Amino acid sequence: MGRKYVLPCAGYDRPGGKIGREAAELLADEDPEVVVGSVAALFAERPGEVKDFRSSQVICIDGCSVKCASKLAQARGNKDMLAVEVTDSIAAIEGSEERRSAVAESVGRLYQKTISKATSDILPKDFNDSAFLIEKIDKFILKVQKSLYYSDNDFWARVEGEDVRIGASDLLQQMASDIFFVELAEIGKKVEFGDDVGGFESTKTAIEIITPISGTILERNELLENNPELVNENPYGTGWFYLLKPDDIDELELLKDASEYITYAVEKAKHELGKKV
Amino acid sequence: MVMMSYEETPTNTFMGVDRKKIHWWPFIDSDKCDGCAGEYDCLKFCPHRVFRPIKNLLVIEVENRYNCVVFCRACQKMCPKDAISFPNKSDVLKLIKDVRSAGGE
Fold first, then answer.
1. Nearest-CB residue to B14 (from A152, A199, A207)
2. Which of A7, A52, A270, B91 has the fewest beta carbons under 10 Å from its own?
């Protein structure tokens, strides 16, 4: 996905700056597309440095809240940069290697998030139809995205590297109808399969988010606070709820695959429709 | 009193286990329940027809226990009198996993 210019701040003599610098080097070791930037060279506008800076996705790692790296990147004209700060919680992690990895991981996650956001901006709202199993029930069109796992409570789980993203199925959002409020649990919370982890309210009902996998919450979809309708508009995409670090990935075997789920969902949808008649 | 009817059960299994083997539905503390003074919030709230009001006593009772969504505890949270409780989730999950590993239903 193109080159990345990772710019750690210049506070090498301070704990946060040192971790940031080490994390940048770790990222460069792991990814040939990563160039480690130099605050001094960028400040002095050394030609080679400026070229790298302008031709790459810029990712700043700030060692403290003064944010020297981000400020410099902005001053040099980059408005789309990503920035990670070595927070107190990261600084409290024991072991320099662990601290370094924690920073590198948060850079990686931030970057992935940007890519997925950019991708969802480009693609039409519902990706494209080949990614779905589609059934018509009366006038309702039910979409089940292939390659996801589904719980009997109508939540999906998607494997993303070592993490698992979860959200509501199309059936669930259709049954709920217009969602106007989503309440999400805190990042870092540990959850067990079947736990309720926040919930959402629609014009028809209130539904708890029942997690289809055990693990720790890494990210939550902050967009939903102001845009709860994304769950209706794009349940398998921008309407996701959480990214979790699973305790045991094999737990997914408890869930249904897309073809098993669509059979179940059609039956459930028919039952729901039947109730209204 | 009319006998309970389970005809409403949307699906017969949950995670591949016979729904009737899974003991998950609300327990009503009839000392605490006051039927919300005739409003029956849980009855209005739950879309799965789990509850039935007993109007002369101003309390709610569970009519369709197997309609209750396994692991959902939304009615417990919204009950103003805290009169609704559920079984221990880990115990129920363990039972489901045990039945599954023993070869299904």
1. A152
2. B91
Other C-beta atoms lying within 10 Å of the C-beta of residue B9: 16
Are A152 and B15 within 8 A, CB to CB? yes
Nearest CA in chain A to B43: A205
Which residue among A153, A199, A254 places its CB closest to the CB of B69? Answer: A153
Q: Which segments within chain A are labelled E, that is strand?
A: 4-8, 34-36, 57-62, 82-85, 132-137, 140-145, 149-150, 155-160, 163-168, 179-183, 190-191, 196-202, 206-210, 215-220, 242-246
- Asked whether this complex has an ipTM greater than 0.90, the answer is no
The answer to whether B45 faces chain A, any CB pair under 8 Å, is yes
Class of domain A125-276: mainly beta
Q: Tally Cβ neighbours within 10 Å of residue A217.
A: 22
Say whether domain A4-121 belongs to CATH 3.40.50.
Answer: yes
- Could you tell me the pTM of the whole model? 0.61
Q: How many domains does chain B have?
A: 1
Alpha carbon distances (Å) from A246 to A20, A55, A157, A220, B68: 27, 36, 11, 14, 27
Does B69 reside within a domain? yes
B44 three-class SS: helix
Q: What is the CA radius of gyration of chain B?
A: 15
Which of B7, B42, B93 to mutate to test binding with chain A, by most A CBs within 10 Å of its CB?
B93
For B61-100, write each residue's pLDDT tens digit.
999 999 998 998 889 988 999 999 999 988 998 899 899 8
Verify whether the Cβ–Cβ distance B11 to A264 is below 8 Å.
yes
Q: Which range of residues forms the domain containing residue B59?
A: 13-101
